Amino acid sequence: MDESPENPLQRFRAFWLALAVMLVVALAGFAYRALKTPREELDAGAAALRLATLAELRTAEQKAVADLGLTYHGPEGGHLTRVTVPDAVIEKALAALKANTPRPTEQLIPGSKTFMEKQAGTHDPTESAFLSQ
Fold first, then answer.
1. 90, 99 Cβ separation under 8 angstroms
2. Does 116 score more than 70 pLDDT?
3. What is the pLDDT of residues 81-102, one digit of tens each?
4. Which of the 8 DSSP states describes residue 80?
5. Which tens digit of pLDDT belongs to each residue from 25-59?
6. Which residue has the higher pLDDT, 48 or 4?
7. Which residues of 17-30 are buried (b: 16+ CB within 10 A; e: fewer)?
8. d(Cα 115, Cα 98) in Å, to the nearest integer?
9. 93 phi and psi, to 5 degrees?
10. Partner of 124 at 20 to 30 A CA spacing, among 36, 41, 46, 105?
11. pLDDT for position 66
């Protein structure tokens, strides 16, 4: 058997041998990493960071709700927070919405009645100065 690099069988075996060696090295690396650091330590550190972030967010949420003059009820038994809005705040918001009159818009929705009316008043594209030359 010829041992030259032009031999297709030799190249085929060399490719799979190199692939197998890389796979063995990768598996050894994963095994070493898994045995080096216990998973419980990783989870405990991440859990402590998540709890600190959650406490900070809940404090900021409570302050923001209090600044709006609303009543804040903290989470009970893992449930979401509850915010009670007084009727006076709702009435004030509704009055502001009623006082805000809608403004006409320049946007047109293709196919709408207004769009069709505006299109009816436009010129015929076949009667342009460019085409008549």
1. no
2. yes
3. 777 788 888 888 889 888 887 7
4. P
5. 999 998 888 787 666 666 777 888 888 998 898 88
6. 48
7. eeeeeeeeeeeeee
8. 28
9. -65, -40
10. 105
11. 82
Chain length of the chain: 133
Cβ atoms of 71 and 83 within 8 Å: the answer is yes
d(CA 65, CA 57): 12
The pLDDT value recorded for residue 126 is 62
- Closest alpha carbon to 65 in 51, 77, 82, 87: 82
Residue 89 CB neighbour total at 10 angstroms: 13
d(CA 57, CA 67): 15
What is the token pair recorded at 40? 């419980």
In a 10 Å sphere around its CB, with 0-12 CB exposed, 13-18 middle and 19+ buried, how is residue 65 labelled?
middle
Q: How far, in Å, CA of 73 to CA of 83, rounded? A: 6
- Pairwise CA distance, residues 6 & 11, whole Å: 8
**DSSP class of 110:** T
One-letter amino acid for residue 48 of the chain: A
Distances in Å between the alpha carbon of 117 and those of 32, 38, 120, 124, 126? 74, 72, 5, 15, 20
